[in-house]
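Worked example
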Amino acid sequence: MIYKLIIFLVLNFAALGIGSLLMGGGPTSEWYMNLNKAPWTPPGWFFGVAWTTIMICFAFYMAHAWETVSDRKFLLGLFIAQWVLNVSWNPVFFKYHQILLALVVIILLTLLIGYFLFKYRATLGAWSLLILPYFLWLITATSLNAYALTNNG
């Protein structure tokens, strides 16, 4: 399992790194700084802590799922879809300022992670708790994105 864990750690952190590279100025950009943000928006440092924790937990989840789930091809397809959605949100929101499209992307990602959680819950048992931080964070992030859409003309 260690080998698979390392692979999923690399893939997960590559997604974060690529997403960061593609987002332009990101959260330090003038555009984002001037956005009307939700009152429950966490401080900037929290995003790094949250995503680091989420990707570590998700790597353990995926490594165990890879060992446990019988249909690895389907599992891999879900993982790839998650990876693409995760990477694509950053440039859609931060670089291209497409708040509505970003909301669609993050809703799809949230639904997909929810699908992981419920589809494999019986098979993975307590290991499913490792994907819960990802799911809960995406619910929060979706609300932040929706707030930005509805409160910035």
The radius of gyration is 16 Å. Residues 2-150 form a domain with the Ferritin fold (CATH 1.20.1260.100). Helices lie at 2-22, 30-33, 44-68, 72-95, 99-119, 121-124, 132-150.
